[in-house]
Specification:
The chain is of the alpha+beta class and 151 residues long. Helix content is 24%, strand content 34%. It has one domain (4-137): Beta Barrel (OB fold (Dihydrolipoamide Acetyltransferase, E2P)), CATH 2.40.50.100. It has helices spanning 38-44, 90-95, 99-102, 118-121, 128-142; strands at 4-6, 9-11, 16-18, 23-28, 31-36, 47-52, 58-59, 64-70, 74-78, 83-88, 111-115. The strands form three sheets. The chain has a six-stranded antiparallel sheet with strand order 3-4-5-11-10-7. A hairpin with a 4-residue loop joins strand 3 (16-18) and strand 4. The mean pLDDT is 93.
């Protein structure tokens, strides 16, 4: 599907979003792949380092899955769901630390999760149409123009 774009900020309609935490979610069977939204990668700037948690660990909704250090910011990337960490994208980021800045919804995914209570926590996620409306207002209010790193 073609993402909706506002001021350069892409919001793919097929994903789910935790807009309060700037996290996208792609459900794949009993797992969820998660990453930073385009707005999040733009506002944090070029990523310089990521500290990863190990697979097998269970993380509560809202707690850090990874810690991201960028040119402008250091902080947690929160889990949109209570889940077990199944895998991370560490090897890809070791090869190209700017993956989330270049391709936040594709190769720049961060963590693969196995939700423990998707039915109970699904309320915290919105569809692509609702996320687009949220981000449209947000980028206007904060005068954000999304960009992708070229190098």
């Amino acid at each position: 599907m073609i993402p909706q774009i506002w001021r350069g900020c892409a919001v793919p309609p097929e994903l789910l979003y935790d807009v309060e935490r700037d996290v996208w979610v792609r459900l794949e069977g009993d797992e969820a792949v998660v990453g930073m939204t385009d707005v999040a990668q733009t506002t944090c700037g070029k990523i310089v380092q990521i500290s990863w948690k190990h697979a097998g660990r269970t993380v509560a909704r809202g707690k850090p899955l990874v810690v991201i250090e960028s040119a402008k910011w250091v902080g947690p990337f929160p889990s949109p769901l209570t889940a077990e960490i199944v895998a991370d994208n560490r090897a890809a980021f070791d090869a190209d630390i700017l993956l989330a800045n270049r391709d936040p919804y594709g190769d720049g995914w961060l963590v693969r999760l196995r939700p423990t209570d998707l039915a109970g926590e699904r309320f915290g996620l919105v569809d692509g149409a609702a996320a687009f409306e949220h981000y449209r207002r947000f980028v206007d209010e904060h005068d954000i123009h999304c960009f992708r790193c070229a190098g």
